[in-house]
Design goal:
Layout: H1 2-28, H2 31-52, H3 58-75, H4 81-90, H5 106-116, H6 123-135, H7 139-146, H8 150-167, H9 176-198, H10 209-225, H11 232-246, H12 271-284, H13 291-304, H14 313-326, H15 330-344, H16 346-359, H17 366-378, H18 382-395, H19 399-417
Helix pairs in contact: 1-2, 1-3, 1-5, 2-3, 3-4, 5-6, 6-7, 6-8, 6-9, 7-8, 9-10, 9-11, 10-11, 11-12, 11-13, 12-13, 13-14, 14-15, 15-16, 16-17, 17-18, 18-19
Protein backbone atom coordinates (compact mmCIF):
# COMPACT_ATOMS: atom_id res chain seq x y z
CA UNK A 1 0.00 0.00 0.00
CA UNK A 2 2.80 2.43 0.94
CA UNK A 3 4.69 1.75 -2.26
CA UNK A 4 1.54 2.15 -4.35
CA UNK A 5 0.71 5.43 -2.61
CA UNK A 6 4.24 6.76 -3.13
CA UNK A 7 4.15 5.78 -6.80
CA UNK A 8 0.75 7.43 -7.28
CA UNK A 9 1.94 10.64 -5.62
CA UNK A 10 5.08 10.71 -7.77
CA UNK A 11 3.02 10.10 -10.92
CA UNK A 12 0.50 12.86 -10.27
CA UNK A 13 3.34 15.25 -9.33
CA UNK A 14 5.15 14.61 -12.62
CA UNK A 15 2.08 14.68 -14.85
CA UNK A 16 -0.22 17.20 -13.18
CA UNK A 17 1.85 19.72 -11.21
CA UNK A 18 1.53 22.45 -13.83
CA UNK A 19 -2.17 21.83 -14.39
CA UNK A 20 -2.88 21.96 -10.66
CA UNK A 21 -0.89 25.14 -10.05
CA UNK A 22 -2.49 26.80 -13.09
CA UNK A 23 -5.95 25.96 -11.75
CA UNK A 24 -5.08 27.38 -8.31
CA UNK A 25 -3.67 30.57 -9.85
CA UNK A 26 -6.92 31.06 -11.75
CA UNK A 27 -8.90 30.59 -8.52
CA UNK A 28 -6.78 32.79 -6.25
CA UNK A 29 -4.68 35.00 -8.55
CA UNK A 30 -1.51 34.48 -6.48
CA UNK A 31 1.51 32.52 -7.72
CA UNK A 32 3.09 31.96 -4.31
CA UNK A 33 -0.18 30.95 -2.68
CA UNK A 34 -0.91 28.49 -5.50
CA UNK A 35 2.52 26.84 -5.28
CA UNK A 36 2.55 26.68 -1.47
CA UNK A 37 -0.98 25.27 -1.26
CA UNK A 38 -0.18 22.66 -3.91
CA UNK A 39 2.95 21.61 -2.04
CA UNK A 40 0.92 21.29 1.17
CA UNK A 41 -1.67 19.18 -0.64
CA UNK A 42 1.00 16.78 -1.86
CA UNK A 43 2.39 16.56 1.68
CA UNK A 44 -1.09 15.74 2.97
CA UNK A 45 -1.45 13.05 0.29
CA UNK A 46 1.68 11.30 1.58
CA UNK A 47 -0.01 10.62 4.90
CA UNK A 48 -3.63 10.18 3.84
CA UNK A 49 -3.16 7.99 0.76
CA UNK A 50 -0.95 5.57 2.66
CA UNK A 51 -3.64 4.92 5.27
CA UNK A 52 -6.89 5.68 3.46
CA UNK A 53 -6.01 4.46 -0.01
CA UNK A 54 -5.46 6.20 -3.32
CA UNK A 55 -8.48 8.30 -4.44
CA UNK A 56 -10.23 7.51 -7.70
CA UNK A 57 -9.13 10.85 -9.15
CA UNK A 58 -5.73 11.73 -7.62
CA UNK A 59 -5.35 15.06 -9.45
CA UNK A 60 -8.86 16.13 -8.40
CA UNK A 61 -8.05 15.20 -4.79
CA UNK A 62 -4.90 17.33 -4.87
CA UNK A 63 -6.74 20.30 -6.41
CA UNK A 64 -9.54 20.11 -3.85
CA UNK A 65 -7.12 19.74 -0.95
CA UNK A 66 -4.92 22.56 -2.27
CA UNK A 67 -7.93 24.85 -2.51
CA UNK A 68 -8.76 24.18 1.13
CA UNK A 69 -5.11 24.71 2.10
CA UNK A 70 -5.12 28.05 0.24
CA UNK A 71 -8.30 29.16 1.99
CA UNK A 72 -6.80 28.19 5.33
CA UNK A 73 -3.81 30.40 4.56
CA UNK A 74 -6.06 33.29 3.56
CA UNK A 75 -8.20 32.78 6.65
CA UNK A 76 -5.14 33.44 8.78
CA UNK A 77 -4.76 36.80 7.10
CA UNK A 78 -7.65 38.92 8.29
CA UNK A 79 -7.35 41.47 5.52
CA UNK A 80 -8.55 38.81 3.05
CA UNK A 81 -11.83 38.05 4.84
CA UNK A 82 -13.98 39.11 1.90
CA UNK A 83 -11.97 36.97 -0.51
CA UNK A 84 -12.25 33.99 1.81
CA UNK A 85 -16.04 34.16 1.83
CA UNK A 86 -16.27 34.36 -1.95
CA UNK A 87 -13.80 31.51 -2.50
CA UNK A 88 -15.41 29.30 0.18
CA UNK A 89 -18.83 29.69 -1.35
CA UNK A 90 -17.55 28.27 -4.64
CA UNK A 91 -16.19 25.07 -3.09
CA UNK A 92 -18.17 21.83 -3.28
CA UNK A 93 -19.47 20.55 0.03
CA UNK A 94 -17.71 17.18 -0.37
CA UNK A 95 -13.97 16.70 -0.36
CA UNK A 96 -13.60 12.93 -0.03
CA UNK A 97 -13.64 12.11 -3.77
CA UNK A 98 -14.22 15.45 -5.54
CA UNK A 99 -15.41 15.56 -9.11
CA UNK A 100 -13.11 17.25 -11.63
CA UNK A 101 -14.34 18.50 -14.95
CA UNK A 102 -11.66 17.51 -17.49
CA UNK A 103 -12.34 20.76 -19.34
CA UNK A 104 -11.44 22.79 -16.27
CA UNK A 105 -7.70 22.36 -16.56
CA UNK A 106 -6.25 22.63 -20.09
CA UNK A 107 -6.99 26.29 -20.91
CA UNK A 108 -5.56 27.34 -17.55
CA UNK A 109 -2.11 26.29 -18.68
CA UNK A 110 -2.29 28.48 -21.76
CA UNK A 111 -3.53 31.40 -19.64
CA UNK A 112 -0.62 30.82 -17.30
CA UNK A 113 1.92 30.94 -20.14
CA UNK A 114 0.51 34.19 -21.54
CA UNK A 115 0.42 35.71 -18.05
CA UNK A 116 4.05 34.76 -17.43
CA UNK A 117 5.02 36.11 -20.86
CA UNK A 118 3.56 39.58 -20.38
CA UNK A 119 5.80 42.25 -21.98
CA UNK A 120 6.12 44.01 -18.60
CA UNK A 121 8.37 41.15 -17.42
CA UNK A 122 11.99 40.69 -18.46
CA UNK A 123 12.51 37.92 -21.02
CA UNK A 124 14.53 35.73 -18.65
CA UNK A 125 11.90 36.15 -15.94
CA UNK A 126 9.08 35.19 -18.32
CA UNK A 127 10.69 31.89 -19.16
CA UNK A 128 11.90 31.12 -15.64
CA UNK A 129 8.51 31.81 -14.07
CA UNK A 130 6.71 29.55 -16.53
CA UNK A 131 9.17 26.71 -15.99
CA UNK A 132 8.69 27.05 -12.22
CA UNK A 133 4.89 27.33 -12.24
CA UNK A 134 3.96 25.04 -15.13
CA UNK A 135 6.70 22.39 -15.09
CA UNK A 136 7.38 22.37 -11.36
CA UNK A 137 11.13 22.76 -11.88
CA UNK A 138 13.12 23.73 -8.82
CA UNK A 139 14.97 27.03 -8.75
CA UNK A 140 18.39 25.37 -9.05
CA UNK A 141 17.23 23.38 -12.10
CA UNK A 142 16.04 26.56 -13.83
CA UNK A 143 19.28 28.29 -12.87
CA UNK A 144 21.27 25.55 -14.61
CA UNK A 145 19.20 26.01 -17.76
CA UNK A 146 20.13 29.72 -17.76
CA UNK A 147 23.73 29.08 -16.63
CA UNK A 148 23.34 31.44 -13.64
CA UNK A 149 23.65 30.92 -9.85
CA UNK A 150 20.55 29.64 -8.02
CA UNK A 151 20.45 32.79 -5.86
CA UNK A 152 20.27 34.97 -8.97
CA UNK A 153 17.41 32.91 -10.38
CA UNK A 154 15.54 32.99 -7.05
CA UNK A 155 15.68 36.80 -7.09
CA UNK A 156 14.38 36.89 -10.67
CA UNK A 157 11.42 34.68 -9.75
CA UNK A 158 10.53 36.81 -6.73
CA UNK A 159 10.69 40.01 -8.78
CA UNK A 160 8.57 38.51 -11.56
CA UNK A 161 5.81 37.37 -9.19
CA UNK A 162 5.83 40.77 -7.47
CA UNK A 163 5.56 42.53 -10.84
CA UNK A 164 2.53 40.44 -11.85
CA UNK A 165 0.85 41.21 -8.52
CA UNK A 166 1.68 44.92 -8.35
CA UNK A 167 0.93 45.65 -12.02
CA UNK A 168 -2.34 43.72 -11.93
CA UNK A 169 -1.39 41.66 -14.98
CA UNK A 170 -4.55 39.76 -15.97
CA UNK A 171 -4.62 35.97 -15.95
CA UNK A 172 -5.97 35.35 -19.44
CA UNK A 173 -5.15 34.63 -23.08
CA UNK A 174 -4.95 38.09 -24.67
CA UNK A 175 -6.86 39.24 -27.73
CA UNK A 176 -5.40 38.33 -31.12
CA UNK A 177 -4.12 41.88 -31.57
CA UNK A 178 -2.06 41.54 -28.37
CA UNK A 179 -0.71 38.04 -28.95
CA UNK A 180 2.01 39.15 -31.39
CA UNK A 181 3.83 41.13 -28.67
CA UNK A 182 4.14 37.98 -26.55
CA UNK A 183 4.48 35.37 -29.27
CA UNK A 184 8.28 35.00 -29.26
CA UNK A 185 8.34 34.53 -25.49
CA UNK A 186 5.40 32.11 -25.56
CA UNK A 187 7.01 29.98 -28.27
CA UNK A 188 10.31 29.95 -26.38
CA UNK A 189 8.57 28.84 -23.19
CA UNK A 190 6.68 26.09 -24.98
CA UNK A 191 9.93 24.81 -26.47
CA UNK A 192 11.62 24.82 -23.07
CA UNK A 193 8.72 22.80 -21.68
CA UNK A 194 9.29 20.35 -24.52
CA UNK A 195 13.03 20.25 -23.84
CA UNK A 196 12.44 19.38 -20.20
CA UNK A 197 10.33 16.47 -21.40
CA UNK A 198 12.78 15.49 -24.15
CA UNK A 199 15.78 15.39 -21.78
CA UNK A 200 14.66 15.65 -18.17
CA UNK A 201 16.89 17.66 -15.88
CA UNK A 202 16.59 15.13 -13.06
CA UNK A 203 15.35 11.63 -12.34
CA UNK A 204 15.86 8.14 -13.66
CA UNK A 205 14.07 8.56 -16.98
CA UNK A 206 15.56 10.51 -19.85
CA UNK A 207 12.17 11.32 -21.40
CA UNK A 208 9.01 12.77 -19.86
CA UNK A 209 6.44 12.04 -22.54
CA UNK A 210 3.75 14.03 -20.70
CA UNK A 211 5.69 17.30 -21.05
CA UNK A 212 6.51 16.61 -24.70
CA UNK A 213 2.84 15.96 -25.47
CA UNK A 214 1.76 19.03 -23.51
CA UNK A 215 4.18 21.30 -25.39
CA UNK A 216 3.00 19.96 -28.74
CA UNK A 217 -0.63 20.44 -27.70
CA UNK A 218 0.02 24.04 -26.64
CA UNK A 219 1.84 24.78 -29.91
CA UNK A 220 -1.17 23.53 -31.87
CA UNK A 221 -3.46 25.82 -29.86
CA UNK A 222 -1.23 28.84 -30.43
CA UNK A 223 -1.26 28.19 -34.20
CA UNK A 224 -5.06 27.95 -34.06
CA UNK A 225 -5.24 31.28 -32.22
CA UNK A 226 -3.26 32.87 -35.06
CA UNK A 227 -5.32 31.27 -37.85
CA UNK A 228 -5.82 31.52 -40.77
CA UNK A 229 -2.25 32.77 -41.20
CA UNK A 230 -0.13 31.45 -38.32
CA UNK A 231 3.38 32.95 -38.14
CA UNK A 232 6.14 30.86 -39.66
CA UNK A 233 7.90 30.56 -36.29
CA UNK A 234 4.80 29.03 -34.66
CA UNK A 235 4.66 26.55 -37.53
CA UNK A 236 8.40 25.91 -37.31
CA UNK A 237 8.19 25.21 -33.57
CA UNK A 238 5.39 22.68 -34.02
CA UNK A 239 7.35 20.95 -36.78
CA UNK A 240 10.54 20.94 -34.71
CA UNK A 241 8.86 19.32 -31.71
CA UNK A 242 7.03 16.74 -33.83
CA UNK A 243 10.32 15.72 -35.47
CA UNK A 244 12.24 15.48 -32.21
CA UNK A 245 9.39 13.62 -30.53
CA UNK A 246 9.17 11.18 -33.45
CA UNK A 247 12.49 9.70 -32.27
CA UNK A 248 11.36 9.26 -28.66
CA UNK A 249 11.00 5.46 -28.61
CA UNK A 250 14.44 4.95 -30.15
CA UNK A 251 16.28 7.31 -27.79
CA UNK A 252 16.45 4.82 -24.92
CA UNK A 253 17.03 1.07 -24.87
CA UNK A 254 15.02 -1.59 -23.04
CA UNK A 255 16.60 -0.67 -19.67
CA UNK A 256 16.17 3.08 -20.12
CA UNK A 257 19.73 3.95 -21.14
CA UNK A 258 20.42 6.71 -23.66
CA UNK A 259 20.94 5.75 -27.30
CA UNK A 260 22.67 8.45 -29.35
CA UNK A 261 21.24 9.52 -32.71
CA UNK A 262 23.70 7.66 -34.92
CA UNK A 263 23.04 4.37 -33.07
CA UNK A 264 19.23 4.57 -32.99
CA UNK A 265 17.00 2.01 -34.72
CA UNK A 266 15.35 4.33 -37.23
CA UNK A 267 12.57 1.82 -37.83
CA UNK A 268 11.25 2.83 -34.41
CA UNK A 269 10.87 6.48 -35.39
CA UNK A 270 7.25 7.66 -35.60
CA UNK A 271 6.70 8.03 -39.33
CA UNK A 272 3.22 9.49 -38.85
CA UNK A 273 4.68 12.47 -36.97
CA UNK A 274 7.48 12.87 -39.50
CA UNK A 275 4.97 12.87 -42.35
CA UNK A 276 2.92 15.54 -40.57
CA UNK A 277 5.97 17.67 -39.77
CA UNK A 278 7.84 17.80 -43.09
CA UNK A 279 5.25 19.98 -44.91
CA UNK A 280 5.20 22.27 -41.89
CA UNK A 281 8.98 22.68 -42.21
CA UNK A 282 8.53 23.77 -45.83
CA UNK A 283 5.81 26.21 -44.80
CA UNK A 284 8.00 27.73 -42.09
CA UNK A 285 10.97 28.18 -44.46
CA UNK A 286 9.12 30.00 -47.28
CA UNK A 287 10.13 33.56 -46.44
CA UNK A 288 12.68 34.71 -43.89
CA UNK A 289 13.10 31.66 -41.66
CA UNK A 290 13.51 32.28 -37.95
CA UNK A 291 15.34 30.22 -35.31
CA UNK A 292 12.62 27.59 -34.85
CA UNK A 293 12.17 27.17 -38.59
CA UNK A 294 15.91 26.64 -39.08
CA UNK A 295 16.10 24.16 -36.21
CA UNK A 296 13.13 22.32 -37.71
CA UNK A 297 14.94 22.20 -41.05
CA UNK A 298 17.98 20.66 -39.30
CA UNK A 299 15.79 18.08 -37.55
CA UNK A 300 14.12 17.29 -40.88
CA UNK A 301 17.46 16.40 -42.47
CA UNK A 302 18.07 13.84 -39.74
CA UNK A 303 14.57 12.39 -40.10
CA UNK A 304 14.80 12.15 -43.89
CA UNK A 305 18.01 10.11 -43.75
CA UNK A 306 17.28 6.37 -43.78
CA UNK A 307 20.79 5.66 -42.44
CA UNK A 308 23.20 7.84 -40.43
CA UNK A 309 25.61 7.92 -43.39
CA UNK A 310 22.84 9.33 -45.60
CA UNK A 311 22.60 12.51 -43.52
CA UNK A 312 23.30 15.68 -45.54
CA UNK A 313 25.74 17.31 -43.13
CA UNK A 314 26.66 20.02 -45.64
CA UNK A 315 23.07 21.25 -45.67
CA UNK A 316 22.87 21.01 -41.87
CA UNK A 317 26.01 23.14 -41.49
CA UNK A 318 24.47 25.76 -43.80
CA UNK A 319 21.36 25.85 -41.63
CA UNK A 320 23.54 26.26 -38.52
CA UNK A 321 25.44 29.08 -40.23
CA UNK A 322 22.14 30.88 -40.83
CA UNK A 323 20.95 30.14 -37.29
CA UNK A 324 24.14 31.52 -35.80
CA UNK A 325 23.75 34.74 -37.79
CA UNK A 326 20.25 35.47 -36.50
CA UNK A 327 20.52 33.99 -33.00
CA UNK A 328 24.19 33.74 -31.95
CA UNK A 329 24.76 31.74 -28.78
CA UNK A 330 27.44 29.43 -27.35
CA UNK A 331 25.09 26.43 -27.52
CA UNK A 332 24.35 27.00 -31.21
CA UNK A 333 28.09 27.27 -31.80
CA UNK A 334 28.54 23.96 -29.99
CA UNK A 335 25.90 22.21 -32.10
CA UNK A 336 27.41 23.71 -35.25
CA UNK A 337 30.81 22.34 -34.20
CA UNK A 338 29.33 18.84 -34.01
CA UNK A 339 27.87 19.19 -37.51
CA UNK A 340 31.21 20.43 -38.87
CA UNK A 341 32.96 17.48 -37.21
CA UNK A 342 30.56 15.11 -38.94
CA UNK A 343 31.16 16.84 -42.27
CA UNK A 344 34.92 17.49 -42.12
CA UNK A 345 36.22 15.31 -39.28
CA UNK A 346 36.67 15.70 -35.51
CA UNK A 347 39.71 18.00 -35.79
CA UNK A 348 37.60 20.75 -37.36
CA UNK A 349 34.90 20.43 -34.73
CA UNK A 350 37.43 20.34 -31.88
CA UNK A 351 38.95 23.62 -33.00
CA UNK A 352 35.60 25.36 -32.50
CA UNK A 353 34.90 23.56 -29.22
CA UNK A 354 38.32 24.55 -27.86
CA UNK A 355 37.58 28.17 -28.71
CA UNK A 356 34.36 27.89 -26.72
CA UNK A 357 36.30 26.30 -23.86
CA UNK A 358 38.72 29.24 -23.79
CA UNK A 359 35.76 31.65 -23.44
CA UNK A 360 34.35 29.65 -20.53
CA UNK A 361 30.69 30.36 -21.38
CA UNK A 362 29.69 26.69 -21.19
CA UNK A 363 31.94 25.39 -18.42
CA UNK A 364 28.94 24.51 -16.22
CA UNK A 365 27.02 22.84 -19.08
CA UNK A 366 27.50 19.08 -18.96
CA UNK A 367 26.72 18.56 -22.65
CA UNK A 368 29.60 20.85 -23.61
CA UNK A 369 32.07 18.58 -21.82
CA UNK A 370 30.31 15.46 -23.13
CA UNK A 371 30.56 16.80 -26.69
CA UNK A 372 34.23 17.69 -26.29
CA UNK A 373 34.89 14.25 -24.83
CA UNK A 374 33.17 12.54 -27.75
CA UNK A 375 35.18 14.50 -30.34
CA UNK A 376 38.40 13.70 -28.48
CA UNK A 377 37.38 10.03 -28.34
CA UNK A 378 36.79 9.98 -32.08
CA UNK A 379 40.15 11.63 -32.56
CA UNK A 380 41.95 9.00 -30.46
CA UNK A 381 42.87 11.35 -27.60
CA UNK A 382 41.55 8.93 -25.00
CA UNK A 383 43.20 10.36 -21.88
CA UNK A 384 41.99 13.89 -22.57
CA UNK A 385 38.57 12.49 -23.49
CA UNK A 386 38.43 10.74 -20.11
CA UNK A 387 39.02 14.04 -18.31
CA UNK A 388 36.19 15.68 -20.24
CA UNK A 389 33.84 12.76 -19.53
CA UNK A 390 34.70 13.04 -15.83
CA UNK A 391 33.87 16.76 -15.88
CA UNK A 392 30.55 16.01 -17.61
CA UNK A 393 29.75 13.43 -14.93
CA UNK A 394 30.35 16.04 -12.22
CA UNK A 395 27.66 18.23 -13.79
CA UNK A 396 25.01 15.83 -15.14
CA UNK A 397 21.84 15.38 -13.06
CA UNK A 398 19.81 12.88 -15.12
CA UNK A 399 20.54 9.24 -14.25
CA UNK A 400 20.05 7.90 -17.79
CA UNK A 401 22.61 10.36 -19.13
CA UNK A 402 24.89 9.61 -16.18
CA UNK A 403 24.90 5.89 -17.02
CA UNK A 404 25.68 6.66 -20.66
CA UNK A 405 28.59 8.93 -19.75
CA UNK A 406 29.97 6.35 -17.31
CA UNK A 407 29.91 3.79 -20.10
CA UNK A 408 31.78 6.12 -22.44
CA UNK A 409 34.29 6.95 -19.71
CA UNK A 410 34.95 3.27 -19.12
CA UNK A 411 35.51 2.77 -22.89
CA UNK A 412 38.11 5.52 -23.20
CA UNK A 413 39.85 4.53 -19.96
CA UNK A 414 40.12 0.96 -21.26
CA UNK A 415 41.43 2.24 -24.58
CA UNK A 416 43.99 4.42 -22.80
CA UNK A 417 45.26 1.38 -20.89
CA UNK A 418 45.38 -0.65 -24.10
CA UNK A 419 42.81 -3.13 -22.79
Amino acid sequence: MVLNANAAIAEVYHTDWGRIVATLIRSFGDFDLAEEATQEAFAAAVDQWRTGGIPNSPAAWIIQTARHKAIDRLRRQTRFNEKIESYASELPTTSEQPELDPGEIPDDRLRLIFTCCHPALAAEAQIALTLRALCGLETDEIARAFLVPATTMAQRLVRAKRKIRDAGIPYKVPDTSEIAARLDAVLTVIYLIFNEGYASTRGESLVRADLCAEAIRLARIVRTLMAPYPPEEATGLLALMLLHDSRRDARVNEVGDLVVLEEQDRRRWNQHQITEALPLVGESMRRNPGPFALQAAIAAEHCKAERPEDTDWTKIVRFYDALQRIQPSPIISLNRAVAIAMMDGPDQGLAIVNELAARGDLDSYHLFHATRADLLRRNGATQEAARSYQRALELVTNESERRFLKGRLHQVQSAARGV
